[in-house]
Recover the amino acids of this structure.
């Protein structure tokens, strides 16, 4: 293929550094395929304004962009500190307490309010408490309800609202909070394209959100749910979670706090392989180009990390602070695009192709997409064209990881937008095609708009037959461009 085509998609998190019209337009023009609204921050008004802006820009540029709503989940945080920052020194003693309880009486001991009423029940002598993504570490000494006395092991500057983790302690708190419920209702009303669920522990946490969607918006029960894997329990229950969800996120930030960092690369490979095997979406997230928050160039280790996620077989790579609060948001997207494209040039040599599971998804669509890949490679075609309503055929085609771009034609706007998350898929919104001739006209127009076509070039087209009957795909056509009826 001789036009600029990247298979792995780029997710960009919104924040003060990216939300204005000009930056957002530059980010999307530079290659952002998915915009992530992080509901741990910002107001509903802010998120609604960004979503409106994304829709406008996407329409103007003629480029599909999905909006991913990321729910905060049961994240425990430091409360409001009386003075910022609070400086903690190694070996000193501090007292943590639930922000609703009374602060400790000792005036000379540093006190840290926590937005978690169950703190005294969860903390136990000898247990570790990590603050701010593990940058600071405490060891619990004694629990004298409601006060938890702890020794500073790793000191540093603590600020209000930073995250707290209790590694190795299963927390008996609901995975779907009252805030998540309000945020989800808002997201459904605004028409987000997918929802990410934080701190998933089991398939039941995913089912809970699916149930909530069914109650709040029965017409949107097909909204893709992405389970964020950031708790050790989630890795133990990986198989059931992958079955229950439409996709997963390798949420390396919290995962690397809950688990020792050296476990994270292995978890990433296991998660990506299993997700691909089950034809589910997989996003690799957090710290991919972290140093670009403050520098125009990434470290060499970060460049390697992005390339290796591509070789592992991820559908998408994600930027967090880099685009949300960084000094170089557009440069970060351009750099990610360049690293991904370079890696993809060597994908056949170094990339891992996970075979799709043969038992669970043995049906016409799966067989046809695999046959389309073989045909595409054998005939060295320019592209594969897929006609789809729900998007499922395009997803299966993506998971077959062909060496050519996948044009996905759909009349459905929601399908058009959500397909922008998947590896290799170029979504095209077209009026409903009810003859093969109309389909071929759509295919040729899309190809010509994207790439210079050489005489005799071929395309593999797959759809349901009879055309227009909206049935799962059972029809493949090897079409030579220019020979349309
Ligand atoms: P977060 O999730 O950015 O919402 O914390 C991603 C992660 O933990 O890696
Ligand atoms: Mn997280």
């Amino acid at each position: 293929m001789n036009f600029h085509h990247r298979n792995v998609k780029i997710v960009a998190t919104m924040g003060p550094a990216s939300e204005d019209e000009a930056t957002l337009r530059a980010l999307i023009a530079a290659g952002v395929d998915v915009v992530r609204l992080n509901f741990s921050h910002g107001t509903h008004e802010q998120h609604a304004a960004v979503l409106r802006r994304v829709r406008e820009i996407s329409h103007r540029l003629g480029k599909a962009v999905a909006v991913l709503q990321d729910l905060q989940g049961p994240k425990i945080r430091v409360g409001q500190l009386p003075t910022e920052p609070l400086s903690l020194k190694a070996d000193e003693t501090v007292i943590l307490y639930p922000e609703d309880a009374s602060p400790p009486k000792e005036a000379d001991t540093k006190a840290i309010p926590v937005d978690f009423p169950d703190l005294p029940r969860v903390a136990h002598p000898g247990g570790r408490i990590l603050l701010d993504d593990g940058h600071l570490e405490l060891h619990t000494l004694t629990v004298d309800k409601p006060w938890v006395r702890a020794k500073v092991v790793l000191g540093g500057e603590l600020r209000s609202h930073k995250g707290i983790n209790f590694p190795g302690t299963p927390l008996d708190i609901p995975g779907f909070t009252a805030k998540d419920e309000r945020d989800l209702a808002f997201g459904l009303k605004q028409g987000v394209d997918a929802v990410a669920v934080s701190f998933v522990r089991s398939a039941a946490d995913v089912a809970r959100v699916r149930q909530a969607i069914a109650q709040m918006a029965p017409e949107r029960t097909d909204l893709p749910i992405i389970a964020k894997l950031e708790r050790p329990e989630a890795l133990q229950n990986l198989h059931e979670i992958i079955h229950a969800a439409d996709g997963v996120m390798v949420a390396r930030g919290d995962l690397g706090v809950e688990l020792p960092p050296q476990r994270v690369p292995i978890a990433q490979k296991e998660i990506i392989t299993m997700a691909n095997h089950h034809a589910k979406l997989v996003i690799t997230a957090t710290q991919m180009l972290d140093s670009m928050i403050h520098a125009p160039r990434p470290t060499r280790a970060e460049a390697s990390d992005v390339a290796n996620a591509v070789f592992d077989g991820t559908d998408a790579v994600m930027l967090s602070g880099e685009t949300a609060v960084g000094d170089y948001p557009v440069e970060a997207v351009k750099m990610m695009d360049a690293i991904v494209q370079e890696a993809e040039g060597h994908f056949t040599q170094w990339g891992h192709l996970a075979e799709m599971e043969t038992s669970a998804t043995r049906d016409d669509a799966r067989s046809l997409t695999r046959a389309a890949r073989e045909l595409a490679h054998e005939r060295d075609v320019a592209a594969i064209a897929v006609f789809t309503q729900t998007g499922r055929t395009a997803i299966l085609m993506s998971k077959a990881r062909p060496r050519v771009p996948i044009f996905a034609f759909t009349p459905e706007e929601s399908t058009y937008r959500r397909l922008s998350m998947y590896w290799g898929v170029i979504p095209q919104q077209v009026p409903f095609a009810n003859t093969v001739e109309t389909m071929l006209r759509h295919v040729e127009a899309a190809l010509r708009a994207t790439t210079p076509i050489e005489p005799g070039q071929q395309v593999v087209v797959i759809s349901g037959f009879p055309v227009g009957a909206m049935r799962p795909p059972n029809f493949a056509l090897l079409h030579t461009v220019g020979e349309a009826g």
